[in-house]
Structure formats: C-alpha cells, structure tokens
Specification:
The protein has one helix and 13 strands, in the order ββαβββββββββββ. By secondary structure, the chain is mainly β. The chain starts with 11 loop residues before the first strand and ends in a 12-residue tail after the last strand. The structure holds manganese (II) ion. Residues 64, 66, 71, 105 line the site of manganese (II) ion.
Length: 158
C-alpha cells in the first residue's frame, strides 16, 4: 500500500512571466510512490493524480489539447470557468469534467476565492499538445515547445 497525505506535500508553483497563468500543484501520485509524467511504462502509476490551486484572476495553463492523454478534473472548492473549443462554461465545487484527447481545455478562476481541483491524467508514453491560441506545440516526453514547419519527407536525407 502507498499512503500519502495531501497536507504533507509541498505546493509547487508554476506561473507565466507576466502572471496571467498561475497554478500551484500538490503531486499526490508522486507522494504515493508514482513518478512524474510517467505511466506504468516508465515505473509510474497508470494515472497521475494532483491537486491544483488557481488564485482569483488566474488561468491554469494556455488553452491546449492533447493528442493522446485523457484528463479528468474534479472541482474541490471555488468557482470558475472551463474554456473549451466551443467557449466557456461555469464550474463549481462538485463538478466533474473529462477531457478526451483532441478536446481543448483551460481553467479560469474568475471567482473571488481559490479554485482547487483534483486532476487525473492517464500518462500515455508519448503526447503531442497543441495550443490553439498561439499555434505552438509541445511534445512529450521530450518536453520541447515548438512551432511546426512542414518540409518534404526526404528533405535533408540525401
Ligand atoms: Mn491538459
């Protein structure tokens, strides 16, 4: 058995240079013996669970969609908005959301208190993430952000 306690885990803060995006994370899976960004294929658990906290006025991440990863969010406290390809919708404590691959998502805290939620991700061995607002891409496990430039298949090969 792997037991951990959320209150014993540190908050890891991630924020953008100008502060538009900000999220604090408690890594439940890592506390319980799992890895970071790895599924069973890399010695981790088949899902990665974290608690996220977004302060009023902040967004968690830029709008993005995964090519392979599934994510489920369970709202623990606060109120906010979930933004998808179709627009925004209000969310509040008790709501449960599932984002299959290809479905864009972003959490916005437009409320007056912290928005906290549990995030469960299935950790595929590879994932390509698209950011529709900027046109950028991120590839995992390399964790490189790039802009795509199409070339001919054999370019540079002969
Ligand atoms: Mn995501």
């Amino acid at each position: 058995m792997n037991l951990t306690h959320a209150e014993d885990l540190p908050w890891t803060t991630q924020s953008s240079p100008k502060g538009k995006y900000g999220v604090m994370r408690r890594a439940l899976s890592q506390g319980a013996g799992g890895g970071k960004d790895v599924g069973t294929w890399g010695g981790g658990h088949p899902f990665e669970v974290e608690i996220h906290r977004v302060a009023p006025g902040k967004m968690n991440f830029p709008l993005h969609e995964h090519s392979a990863q599934w994510e489920a969010y369970y709202i623990l406290s606060g109120r906010g908005q979930v933004r998808g390809a179709e627009g925004k919708e209000g969310i509040r404590a008790g709501d449960y959301l599932v984002f299959p691959p290809g479905e864009a998502h972003q959490i916005i805290n437009d409320g007056e208190e912290d928005l906290t939620f549990m995030v469960i991700a299935d950790q595929p061995q590879a994932d390509v993430i698209h950011y529709p607002d900027s046109g950028k891409w991120l590839v995992k496990p390399q964790k490189k952000v790039f802009e795509m430039k199409a070339v001919e298949y054999f370019e540079g090969e002969e």
